[in-house]
Amino acid sequence: MEKISEKFNEGDSSSSDTDDEKKSSPSSLKAKVYRIFGREKPVHKVLGGGKPADVFLWRNKKISGGVLGVATAIWVLFELLEYNLLTLVCLGLILGLAGLFLWSNASTFIHKSRPHIPEVHIPEEPVLQFASALCSEINRAFGILRDIASGKDLKKFLCAIAGLWILSIVGSCCNFLTLFYIVFVLLHTVPVLYEKYEDKVDDFAEKAMIEIKKQYAVFDAKVLSKIPRGALKDKKKA
Fold first, then answer.
1. What is the pLDDT of residue 216?
2. Do 192 and 57 contact (CB within 8 A), yes or no?
3. Tens of pLDDT, residues 26-85
4. C-beta separation of 191 from 41 below 8 A
5. What is the spatial distance between Cα 154 and Cα 227, in angstroms, rounded to a whole number?
6. What pLDDT is attached to residue 121?
7. What is the dihedral of CA 228, 231, 232, 235, to 10 degrees?
8. What average pLDDT score do residues 212-224 get?
9. Distance CA 29, CA 96 (A)
C-alpha cells in the first residue's frame, strides 16, 4: 500500500510539474518577444499616461484634432504668413478690447446696465506641474549626457555624437519653430501608428538591430580594436 501511495504521489507531482510548465510557458514566450528600445510597458504608459498620452494616441479624436489644428494654425501664422509674436499678441488684444468696449457700451445703451465681464487668470497648479515636469526631464537629459561623457560606454558615446550631428544638420535646414512643429506632428502620428502595427514594427526592428550589431562588430574588429590603449591601462595600474 505504501508503494502504491508513493506511485500516486509521484504521478500527482509529475502532473503538477507539467501544469506549472504549461502555465509558465506562455509567460516565458511573452518575455522572449522583442520590443523596440527594450520596452516593457504599453505605449500609453511609455508616453506618461493620463491626458497627454490620450491626446497623442487619439483616444478622443476631437481633442487630438483640435490640438493639432491649433498647432498648425500657429505654425502657419508665424512661419508662412511671417507674423511676429509681439505683433500678433497686440492685434489680438486690440480686437479683444475693442469688442468688449463696444459690447459694454451697447449693453448700457440698450439695457441700461453694464454687462459683467468675467475675470481671466491663469491657474497656478498646471503651470507649476508643467514647470516641474520640464525641469525633471532637463535634469534627466543632463544626467544622461554626463554618463555618456564619463567614458564608460563607447557605443553610447558614438550614438550620441551621431544623433547630435544629425540634429545639427536638421537645425541648419529649418528654424526652431518648424522643427518644433515637425516633432509635434510626429508625436501625433508615430505613436498611434506604432500602437496599431506594433508586432510588425517590432519584428522589423529586431532584424534591423541584429544587422546593426553585426556591422558594429565588424567596425569594432577593424577599427576600434586597433586603437592603442595599452599605455593608458599601464598608467592606471601604476
1. 82
2. yes
3. 444 444 566 776 667 778 787 777 787 888 888 888 998 999 999 999 889 888 888 888
4. no
5. 13
6. 80
7. 170
8. 82
9. 61
CA torsion 73→71→191→51, rounded to 10°?
A: -130
Q: Which residues contact 51 (CB under 8 A, 6 or more apart)?
A: none
pLDDT tens digits for range 188-197: 898 888 888 8
Neighbours of 169 (CB within 10 A): 9
User: Using CA atoms, how far apart are residues 105 and 117, in angstroms rounded to an integer?
Assistant: 12
Q: Between helices 176-196 and 61-75, what is the axis angle to 10°?
A: 160
Q: Among 82, 64, 56, 67, which residue's Cα sits nearest to residue 177?
A: 82
21's grid cell: 510548465
Nearest to 57 by CA among 67, 66, 68, 47: 47
**What length does the chain have?**
238
Residue 56: is it exposed, middle or buried by C-beta count within 10 angstroms (0-12/13-18/19+)?
Answer: buried
